[in-house]
Amino acid sequence: MRKPEEYKYYSTQRPVSIGTFPKDHFKAPIRLQNYDGRLPVEGGAFRAWGEVVYDTPLTEGELRSYELRPSRNNPDIRRQMDAQAQVVGKWEDAHRVPDQKRLTWFYPDFGSYVAKEYVTPEQLASFARGVERQEAARAHKEAKRQPPIAEQLKAAQRETQEHRTPDGPKKKAPDRGDR
């Protein structure tokens, strides 16, 4: 039997208590836990007062309303980070980013990039959006770039030659002699 997926969310602003997490008929937490204080979580990426675990993911609106942060180990966040790590990792390789500054590392067994442990989902998402904007700007610039004027003139000349009507028969003019 397969274990149900769990979605963990951290309470970063206050201890977990009544009214600090979403709860209704359709969405009730599986587990709640308060820590002994505000402790570092997710490899020290940020600090939290406690955690709430659900069997379904919360919406962006619920996360904002209750000031919760998702765990990077949630199935939906993990899938999102894996996709973003491919984009960021290729960019880091292409730009020869040194290891100590990279957000990803290459996992040769699977032939893919993986986000480093200390990287938060927000950091990776922000960097991935930046890379995608750079690529979109470069593609837009390439699409707008025109060939040099000499090539444009040659292309125009070829086009006129192709669309030109064939010459009609030449008229024979009478020989006028040496006038």
Tell me how many strands there are: 6
Shape: elongated
What is the multimeric organization of the chains shown? single chain
> Spans of 5+ residues with little confidence (pLDDT < 50)?
none
Count structural domains.
2
User: Approximately how much helix is present in the residues?
Assistant: 25-40%
- Assess the beta-strand content as a share of residues: 15-25%
Q: What is the count of DSSP helices, taking H or I runs of 4+ residues?
A: 4
- H/E element sequence: EEEHEHEEHH
Rg, Å, rounded: 32 Å
Q: From the helix content, strand content and strand pairing, which structural class follows?
A: alpha+beta
Q: Describe the strand arrangement of the main beta sheet, using strand numbers.
A: 2-3-1-4
**Quick one: biggest sheet?**
4 strands, antiparallel
**Mean pLDDT score, rounded?**
90
Q: What is the CA–CA distance across the termini?
A: 111 Å
Topology (elements, then pairings):
Elements: E1 7-11, E2 31-41, E3 46-54, H1 60-66, E4 68-70, H2 75-94, E5 104-107, E6 112-115, H3 121-144, H4 149-163
Helix pairs in contact: 2-3
Describe this structure in words.
The mean pLDDT is 90. The chain starts with 6 loop residues before the first strand and ends in a 16-residue tail after the last helix. The strands form 2 sheets. It has a 4-stranded antiparallel beta sheet. The longest helix has 24 residues. Strand 2 and strand 3 form a beta hairpin. It is built from 4 helices and 6 strands. It has 2 domains: 65 residues; 68 residues, no CATH class. Helix 2 crosses helix 3. The protein has 179 residues and is α+β, with helices and mostly antiparallel strands. Helices cover 37% and strands 20% of the residues.
